Amino acid sequence: MISDEMLAWQTLSGDIKAFEELVNRYKNQVYAIVYRIIGHAQEAEDLCQEVFLTVYEKMYQFDTNKKFAPWIYRIATNTSISALRKRKKVVMVNFDEAYSVPLNSYAPAQIGDPHSMFEQRELHRQIDEAIMSLPENYRVVLTLRYQMDLDNQEIADALGISKENVEVKVHRARKALQKILLNRQAERGIKNELSANR
Amino acid sequence: MNCQQIDKYIYEFCDNRLAPQMQDGIKAHLDHCESCRDKVAAARHEGHLLRSMETIPPLQPDFTARVMALIQGNSGRRRAGLFARGAFGRSRPLRWWWGAAGAAVLLLVLYSLPLLQQPVGIRLAEQNDPGSLQTETLPAAMNSIPEISPKPEGTQVAESVIETEIEAIKETVKEPVAESAPEPRARYDQVAMQDSPTSASPNHTALRQASPPVPETRSASIAAAPVDQAIKSPYPTNPNRGVGLLTLHPTNLPSEYSLQTVISNSEQDITFIYKNQVTQQELSLRLTAVTNQSDQVEMENLANDTQLKSVSLDEDEGSEGSLPAGGSLPAEKLLINSYQSSMNHNQHLYQLVVTGNLSTEELAAIAKSIKLEEGIPDEEQDNP
Lengths: 198, 384
Description:
The complex is a heterodimer of chains A (about 200) and B (about 375). Chain A is an all-alpha fold. In chain A, about 75% of the residues lie in helices and about 0% in strands. Chain A has one domain (about 5-195): RNA polymerase sigma factor, region 2, helix turn helix motif (Rna Polymerase Sigma Factor, Chain: A), CATH 1.10.1740.10. Chain A has 10 helices and no strands. The radius of gyration of chain A is 19 Å and the shape is elongated. The relative contact order of chain A is 0.11. Chain B is α+β, with helices and mostly antiparallel strands. Helix content of chain B is about 35%, strand content about 20%. Chain B has helices spanning about 5-15, 20-30, 35-50, 65-75, 95-115, 155-180, 295-300, 330-335, 360-370, 375-380; strands at about 205, 220-225, 245-250, 255-265, 270-275, 280-290, 310-315, 335-345, 350-355, 370-375. In chain B, strand 4 and strand 5 form a beta hairpin. The longest helix of chain B has 27 residues, at about 155-180. Classes of the chains: A mainly alpha (about 200), B alpha+beta (about 375). At the A-B interface, helix 2, helix 3, helix 7, helix 8 and helix 10 of A face helix 1, helix 3 and helix 4 of B.
C-alpha cells in the first residue's frame, strides 16, 4: 500500500489519481473533525470539500518527510474554526437533522433487545449533545483523541500546540464532558421524579 | 500515589497512555481506594462511549467525485501547489485589490524607468530661430529615439569648416597636454565652478556610469527632444519614429579621457566628468546654455560659428580670498583649476567650464580642442 506521503508527492507531480486516493482515505476523518466543530451535516460536508481543495492547493507546503495525517487534520481544524468564527453564530446540535438520518446508517448495529437498543442510542445522543455543547477546542481535542485515535503528539502536530498542552486540554475536556453528563443526568432524575410523582 | 494524583492522570490511565511504571502505581492505589476505583470505572465508561460514538451523519456517496470534479474543472488553469486560494467556487473570493495594487506598482515602475534612464541636458539651441534660445524638453521616453536623418546641406558645409579649424587647434594643443606631468590627485568635491548660473545641488543625479572607452573622441550626451511644432530641430525628425532626440556632444577630448558620469544640474546646465585612464586624473566639463539676453548679445559680437569665442584663465575660486596667514595654499587646492570659455553652436551661446587638477594651460588646451556636436549618443557609442 502506498503511503500517504508518497501519494502527496505523486499529487505534486501531477498525478490526480493519487490525490483521489488521499480523498478516499481521509474524507471520513476530515468530515468527523469538521462536523464536530461545525455541528451541521450539510455545512460540514461543504467545508470538508473546501478542506480538500485547500489541501490540494497547499500541497506544495507539505513536507513529505513528515506524516500526512496531522497536516490534513490541522487544515481541517483551522478551516472549520475559521468558518465557525466567521459565521459568529452559536453552534447547536440540529436534532431534527440528526433524527432525520436513518439510524442504521451511522449507529452501530444492535442486535437484541429493542429496549437496550433504544437506551444505547439515547446514551449516544446524550454524549453527542454533551460534546457539541463543549467549547470548540475541547470538541476538536476529543474528536482527534477518541475518534481519530491519535496520540498526544499527533494531536499536538495537528493543532499546532505542545504535547503537554494537549494533555491538559484532553483532561479539561473530559472533566467538562463529565460535568455536563452529570448535570443532565441530574436533570433527568428530577424530571423522572416529577413524572413519577404525578 | 494519592487520590489527587489519580485524579490528575485518570484519563491518561484509562486510555493506557501513561508510562508502565505510572500505570502500575495507579493500579496499586486503586487496589485499596474504592472512590478512585469508582471514578476510574466511570471514566472508562465515558471513554468507551466516546470511542463508540458514531452519530456523525455519513458523507454523500459522491463526495470524492465532486471534489475531484472541482479540482479537475480548475486544473486547466492551476495545478496542485501552484495556485492560490480562491480559485474555486467555494473558496474565498479572490482579493482583486491585490491584483490592482500589483498592477499599479508595475505601472509606476514602468513609467518611472524611462525618467531615470533618459538623457538629460541643457536645452538645445534651435538653428532656425537665432533670436531666442530655443529649448526642447526632455524626451518622454528613451524609446522615442529617432533614426538619424541626413543633415541639411548647409549644416554639413559649416561643420566641415569647423572640423578643420578644430583639428588645427587640437594639433597645437595636443603635445603640451600629453607631455604635462601628472599632478597629484585633488579632491574633486572641492571644485567650485566659476560663474555658473546655477550651483550644483546635492540632488544632482549621476545618470551614466563609465561607458566603454571610445578611441579618439569622447562624447557625452546632452539630450533634447522636440515636443511641438514651435520647437524645431536642426535635423528633420522621422515622423515614423515620433519625437526626435537630439544631443550635444563635447567631443575631441584627448583619447586618454573616458566619460565617467553625466550630472544633470538643470535642463540648461549639465556636467560631464571624464577620467584620464593613464594618470587617473579627473576632468569636469560643465556646459551651460546662456539664457541671459545681454550676455548673449555680447557673445554674439564675437560670434563665428562653433569657434572658441573667449578664453579666460582663472584659478580655482578656493585660491582667491582665502589665503592663509602664511600666504600659501594647500598644494592640492592650488592644483584644481578652472578654465572658462564660451562656445557657439547653431548661433547660440554656451558657457563651458573645464575644471580639473591640471594646470590652467592644460585646461585651456583641452577646452580649445573641444567642439560641440549633435547626434544620438547611444548610436554613437554603439558605432564609435
